[in-house]
Amino acid sequence: MPQGGFRRSGLEWFSSLPACLLLLAVVLFSTSSDIHNQMLRAGEQLWSGYYKLRMDPVQPECDLNRDIEAEVARELAEQAPSDDPMAALLGAHEKDPREVRLAIERSVADCRAAHASYEDLQDKLTPGVKAYRAVELFVADLIAFGLTAQRYVLVILVMLCAVTATLTRHHIAMRAMETRLDYTVSHTLQTIANAMLLGSSVIFRQSSLASSTTVSGEELLLHNFWIVGFACLTLASLYRLFRVPDNLAPGGNLNQAFLSVPLYTVMCLISGTYFALIGHSSGIGIYLGKMMELADMFLNVGLYVWVGMMLKQTRLATLVFNIFRPWRMPPEMLAVVAVLVAAVPTAYTGASGIFVIAAGAVIYSELRA
């Protein structure tokens, strides 16, 4: 480690910092609803009827000093219009002075109650209430923004991680790229697959605009996000295709080279070819749009992986296995123990993958020992 401390490269900062900020934003959006519920409960406990104080009260427009006698006389003097369809249907109806008076008295009473409620709410709107209300409404707006922004956060996060994995050669494949042939075949097919994704997204956008259904601004922005993301991914794979590393062995075997193709590339080539053959080139783009309906679930998966990677930097897995190491269990029994330990977080969070990521290296070394 250099004397100045641990230093990250520019590419690591380019990928890690935005991804960290996006995941922190997801955590903030996810917990803000619980915070808002607690704030509403606290506001109701501090100020009775706080739900009425969340908005400025509107002064009633009715006249609470109405002359009841004059109103009754005016109402009785009014005649129904001659062309009234209800009068023609039901026949003429004489007004009962007692009913008219009762209706006007109730109207005046309701008006006085509305004015009294308005004055009471005005008295309760202290500076403390206004300050608390401002914070509570900000959290409410944050929740609304978070629900709307989930899809965009997911697209940015997926594209950012995909571009980073392409530039750093960290895509998941059956085998690593060891020869120049492996590298050429892998990145050539990656470029073709990414171009398929880009083309499908562009075609889906154009078909959506050409349809009779109105495309909202949010949907159009989401289309543009996918197109820009896949364009960057295509350029990244194309850049890597022509920037061959010097540490690769010459030559190679074609059959083994195909094993170096990332799994997402294989699936994309299969699905893209299928949709192209049936004349439905926008198929991948349509399914990507369907995926956005479950954006919160996919973001939670990203959070699980993030937590697992952070736990991997701790001594948690080592400390857990230190409990069982003195028993000198055989590998078979130790594997059972690892499964049982991983099942504990699953029971509470459904995220046993966190423990697998955090303890994977330790489990592997313990089973080999």
From TrEMBL:
Keywords: Membrane, Transmembrane, Transmembrane helix
Top-rank lineage group of the source organism: Bacteria
Transmembrane segments: 13-31, 152-172, 184-204, 225-242, 262-289, 301-324, 336-364
Protein known as: TRAP-type C4-dicarboxylate transport system, large permease component
Taxonomic source organism: Marinobacter nauticus
